[in-house]
Specification:
Number of domains: 1
Strand content: 25-35%
CATH topology: Rossmann fold
Helix content: 25-40%
Order of helices and strands: EHEHHHHEHEEEHEE
Number of helices: 7
Distance between the termini: 15 Å
Radius of gyration: 16 Å
Number of strands: 8
Length: 179
């Protein structure tokens, strides 16, 4: 299988996935968002990170850098918490592109914070240590684009065949989506 990992390259995750005989493609998706929409040049015009996500020039630049894979390239995607930091309509475009990049029957795994009244949430680097352990290393605090409830997640992934939710002790909503 071919797996897309939005957490960026990690030897632990690479070893875990490739030891099962699968291929892993890594992108540090949040870093790519920051590189384009949070760069000093992009922020110089007075717009903020989320406002910049509506700028067609920056959106084009972003898609030249991120999600450059062919349609039906992957059997799975580890999206982690990255979708929380994308504003609409860019979010819908990213999810549609993910839908196209996944093969029929493929799965997508994402995490969403459940706190509705929170200003900033922690972002993490995710590393798969073994079949029971995911290491979460705090990166920074950042404002989410929006808070997702079950209804908004169902709408976001409406083109997929199924969406399942699981709540964790850490106030995270794990979402497994089937293409």
């Amino acid at each position: 299988m071919s797996i897309l990992d939005f957490a960026g390259a990690s030897q632990a995750t690479i070893s875990f996935v490739t030891n099962y005989g699968h291929r892993l493609y890594s992108d540090d998706f949040v870093r790519q968002l920051d590189q384009v929409f949070g760069s000093p040049t992009a922020l110089a015009n007075g717009a903020n990170f989320f406002e910049n996500q509506a700028n067609p020039i920056l959106v084009s630049e972003f898609f030249n850098l991120a999600l450059t894979f062919e349609d039906a390239s992957f059997d799975g995607a580890l999206v982690w918490d990255s979708l929380q930091f994308i504003a609409s309509p860019l979010l819908q475009t990213v999810v549609a592109k993910l839908h196209r990049m996944l093969r029929p029957g493929a799965s997508l795994f994402a995490l969403f914070n459940t706190e509705e009244r929170i200003e900033n949430i922690s972002t993490y680097a995710y590393r798969i240590q073994d079949h029971r352990t995911i290491q979460m290393t705090a990166r920074s605090q950042r404002k989410p684009a929006q808070i997702f409830n079950n209804r908004s997640l169902e709408k976001l992934f409406q083109d997929f065949s199924s969406v399942k939710f699981f709540l964790t002790r850490d106030r995270l909503r794990e979402v497994i989506v089937k293409r």
